[in-house]
Design a protein that fits this description.
The protein is an alpha/beta fold. The protein has 16 helices and 23 strands. Helix 3 crosses helix 7. The mean pLDDT is about 95. The protein binds nicotinamide-adenine-dinucleotide (NAD).
């Protein structure tokens, strides 16, 4: 009997409000997608918790943070980056626990980019210029017009689960750099690294109330309470296009500023002159990284007809060789999807593709492990061919490890087919003809076009989508502009 010990208590992930961790009354479970087990309890914010967070953020604007110089804010951001660096392995463990992604991805992408976001915006804000124009006038003296930047106020940040720390810090860092205070609500599917980040921000010595974190769900819950709160001054949101539209309606009465990074149905285009091996490796990467759960992943692949059969065969071989497994396994390529709910959605498309007449080149099912992972949210990486351009599997965002490959015959035709989409986030072109690259890239209706690469990001460049893929741009000075209120001052000389 003495060997029987009580099961260890599950961690409780709490809100962070006005410099304190608070639990409130309600909870929701944090489920591991690896095996379906509950790994933590998460505090679930009600309207009064969200109200307390917004009020703390409003009050903090009147305190020392509201008077902090740009250098002081930049130094605070570097201290946060140092804090993440010092607890690097804990952040990796948090990202991996919530998402089941490969450890090497969490190390090289997620946590590394979390740090880079704070360092980049700390440096950028120190170099941020404003505008100055000298006007002419009949008296020959004219006027001097210049702009000054001020904080927007309280910024509500709502983020998704697919790249939890990366996408949350992509917004927190510039918001703080510009002198705002923040109420952040991470996705209910990935609350762990955000909670750790609150500890780091507390330890970095930011005044109470400058950064607040509330956990909860979206509609009818913390997300909606936050976007409807009259005390916020702006909403920056990354997530599904449909949610963006709901949030836009919620903030319309208050006329709040919004920045939206939304869904996509991105294309990859492989011309016959492309470096074949690089294109195959690139498209495997752009279709299956993070189990296809990156907003920039390519779910539509167009291959110039002379290459088509060979390209599909090479994609099949490389995809079938992807290693699906536990996050810490050596050379693992793919983990599970984020949740059973999301797997149900992806599997419904796997079924629909067959109904729509697709040829399943590889995948299309659920891997069987014969161990605890059979309780997780795994799917096979999947390639289809043979669908018409108007099939739902070719037009709707699936957000899983899946792509459809279709042949094309001319540049004009492929540009038309790529642009025939409700979305317009990103596109990757594969060609060794530079003139073609320069000719085609600007014709693509997307916020971002890569040539012979994918997901190579310079954080100083604008990022965002067109059509249903977003509203506004963030990145570099575009973030500084969004997170600042700009006043023009005109002085008659
Ligand atoms: P989602 O829209 O379901 O949820 C995103 C966040 O919004 C979560 O925190 C959720 O709780 C919250 N939310 C949901 N409904 C809400 C409401 N009514 N009011 C306020 N908040 C609400 O998206 P998701 O499933 O977490 O993420 C996947 C989606 O995100 C995909 O469509 C993907 O393409 C998109 N995405 C886009 C980008 C980009 O940069 N364009 C980046 C990553 C992900």
């Amino acid at each position: 009997m003495s060997s029987i010990r009580p099961a260890p208590a599950r961690p409780l992930l709490r809100h962070f409000i006005n410099g304190q961790f608070v639990a409130g009354e309600h909870r929701f479970p944090n489920i591991s997608p690896v095996n379906g087990e509950c790994i933590a309890d998460v505090a679930h914010a009600d309207a009064s918790t969200v109200d307390a967070a917004v009020k703390a953020a409003q009050a903090a604007l009147q305190g020392p943070w509201g008077r902090a110089t740009v250098s002081e804010r930049a130094a605070a951001l570097h201290r946060i980056a140092d804090g993440i660096q010092a607890r690097f392995d804990e952040f990796v463990a948090a990202e991996v626990a919530d998402t089941g992604r490969p450890v090497h991805q969490a190390r090289t992408l997620d946590v590394a980019r979390g740090i880079a976001n704070f360092r980049t915006f700390a440096d950028l804000v120190k170099c941020a210029n404003t505008e100055l124009f000298q006007s002419e006038s009949a008296d020959g003296l004219g006027a001097l017009n210049y702009t000054v930047r001020k904080p927007l106020g309280v910024v509500a940040i709502i983020s998704p689960w697919n790249l939890p720390l990366l996408l949350l810090t992509w917004k927190i860092a510039p918001a703080l750099a510009c002198g705002n205070t923040v109420v952040a609500k991470p996705s209910e599917e990935s609350p762990s690294s955000a909670t750790l980040l609150a500890e780091v921000i507390r330890d970095a010595g930011l005044p109470d109330g400058v950064f607040n974190l509330v956990h909860g769900l979206g509609g009818g819950s913390a997300g909606e309470f936050l976007t409807r709160h009259p005390g916020i001054d702006a909403v920056t949101f990354t997530g599904e296009s449909r949610t963006g539209s709901t949030i836009m309606k919620a903030v319309a009465d208050g006329m709040k500023e919004v920045s939206f990074e939304l869904g996509g149905k991105n294309a990859a285009v492989v011309f016959a002159d492309a470096d074949f091996d690089a294109a195959v490796a690139g498209v495997v990467r752009s279709s299956f990284t993070n189990s296809g759960q990156v907003c920039l992943c390519s779910e539509r692949v167009y291959v110039e007809r002379p290459l088509f059969e060979r390209f599909v065969a090479a994609m099949k071989e490389k995809t079938a060789a992807l290693k699906i497994g536990y996050p810490a396994e050596d050379k693992v390529d793919m983990g599970p999807l984020i949740s059973h709910g999301h797997r149900d959605k992806v599997l419904s498309y796997y079924r629909l593709a067959r109904e729509e007449g697709a040829t399943v080149v590889t995948g299309g099912g659920v891997p069987q492990f014969g161990d605890e992972r059979d309780g997780g949210a795994w799917v096979e990486p999947t390639i289809w061919t043979g669908l018409p351009d108007n099939a739902r599997c070719v037009t709707e965002e699936i957000f899983g490890p899946v792509c459809h490959i279709a042949p094309f015959d001319s540049e004009e035709e492929v540009v038309r087919r790529v642009n025939d989409s409700q979305y317009g986030l990103a596109c990757a072109l594969w060609t060794s003809d530079l003139k073609r690259a320069h000719r085609v890239a600007p014709q693509i209706e997307a916020g971002l076009v890569w040539v012979n690469t994918w997901y190579l990001r310079d954080l100083r460049t604008p990022f965002g989508g067109v059509k249903q893929s977003g509203l506004g741009r963030e990145g570099g000075r575009h973030s500084l502009d969004f997170y600042s209120e700009i006043t023009t001052i005109c002085i008659k000389l």
